[in-house]
Amino acid sequence: MKNKVVLVTGGGSGFGRATATGLAALGAKVVVGDLNLETAEETARLARVAGVEARAQKLDVTQEKSVQAFTEGALKAFGRIDGAFNNAGILGPLQEMAEVPLEDFERVMAVNVRGVWLCMQAQIRAMLRQAPPEGGHSIVNMASIAGLAASPMLPAYSASKHAVVGLTRSAARNYGRRGIRVNCVCPGPVETPLAEPLFEASGMREMMLARQSMAKFGTPGEVAALVLWLLSPAASLVTGTPMRVDAGALA
Ligand SMILES: NC(=O)c1ccc[n+]([C@@H]2O[C@H](COP(=O)([O-])OP(=O)(O)OC[C@H]3O[C@@H](n4cnc5c(N)ncnc54)[C@H](O)[C@@H]3O)[C@@H](O)[C@H]2O)c1
Is 38 a pocket residue for ligand 1 (Cβ < 6 Å)? Predict the structure, then answer.
């Protein structure tokens, strides 16, 4: 990954931060975007400890202008984009479908689906103007096991992550012959700020653990390891694939 330029959205926390610092350890230049500029700057600082260039930018993935500014900022700073991890996301309320207010449904879809759509469009447009690097350009989107199976108390979230799987497959078909690989990762529950309501809901922790094949919850680093592999030339034959990293929850 040495000197490759990789964008990470939602890079101020959780999986995004673990991936950005993991990329830096492999020698990549990282561009960290997050709604929270302070946490994005802290991630960029942590990345620079590895001796690479890293920049942070405020980003709202739901806003086309913000996504364009993020992409253009990366191009201006580093001249090209080799890969991207479209990871920013929100959970939304833990409720059955009939209880969810429309504005909550729309917010979840805006961040998790429209966000991935806008980011991929901007990245692909930039990538199509460049010769692909060794192993191809690589885009990794953040889905979830909720994108592969029902999550009855998270109906909007589950629908949004199924949509991320669909966008991933469509983009992989569209651009596979033009040097762009597109995959998504499907983690099970991991204790990050986003997942706090899940881990704190009565009986949920035990229920989620019982569902898994392995008797442990993963860490952001264990999910980032898969993202790093997909972003790297080692995954040169892999595209259009939702990959589970879920302690065997859906085995
Ligand atoms: N933690 C889990 O159990 C789990 C499991 C499967 C998938 N995921 C997915 O992983 C992704 C990252 O979540 P996490 O668990 O690391 O949570 P997190 O809360 O630690 O990180 C999410 C980051 O996204 C940022 N963000 C939110 N809305 C944004 C927007 N509109 N524009 C830009 N940035 C925005 C937040 O500020 C935050 O820094 C999400 O897409 C989530 O759905 C999480």
Answer: no
